[in-house]
Amino acid sequence: MKTQSEVKNKKEVGIYSTEQVESANLDAQKNLPDLSQAKKHFVPLNIEYWSPEQAGEEKLVYIHSVGEHEVPDLETGEIKPLLCVMLLEKQGDKVKRFINASRVLVGNIQDAINRGEIVPKTTLTPVSITFLGAFKNRSNAFSSNRWQIIPLINTTNAEA
């Protein structure tokens, strides 16, 4: 019987074929390739959680995706898988990745993706996302965050 790691290594990983993963496996290497001349990707792997504190906070972003991420519960600290929107924001000469699990924001972004108004993982449909604040729900004692999502027209790319 195969172990779970053996089964996992037999399928494609991301953009890499099974053969590429097998030949690059660290156990199969005699030494590691020299990375001193390697170029760094412009998007880092680390992700920050965006939790706006005041109404009016805005991010000018590209939508990377809507997907499940492990996020700490704000009340218990327990790590839970939550559906989040991942955003890419350019800050000066750096790019930062953010996630947010607000059901209203995630739902609105997912709906816009489904309607074709946002094309994720592209630079075609940048948006401005503004936190409008938390508002008390009419149906219960809880409050929900409200958001304004506006498509951006990038005049720099339009003129090129």
Characterization of the model:
This protein is an alpha+beta fold and 160 residues long. The longest helix is centred in the C-terminal third of the chain and has 12 residues, at 103-114. It has helices spanning 4-9, 18-24, 103-114, 155-159; strands at 47-49, 58-72, 79-91, 94-100, 127-136, 143-151. Strand 3 and strand 4 (94-100) form a beta hairpin. Strands 1-4-3-2-5-6 form a six-stranded mixed sheet. The model is unreliable at 1-9 (pLDDT under 50). Helices cover 19% and strands 36% of the residues. The protein has four helices and six strands; from the N terminus they run ααββββαββα.
Give the averaged pLDDT, no decimals. 87
Detail the poorly predicted runs: 1-9
Approximately how much helix is present in the residues? 10-25%
What global shape is seen? globular
Strand content: 35-45%
Q: Spatial order of the strands in the main sheet?
A: 1-4-3-2-5-6
> What is the alpha-carbon Rg in Å?
20 Å
Tally of DSSP helical segments = 4
Number of strands: 6
Order of helices and strands: HHEEEEHEEH
Structural class: alpha+beta
The separation of the N and C termini measures 57 Å
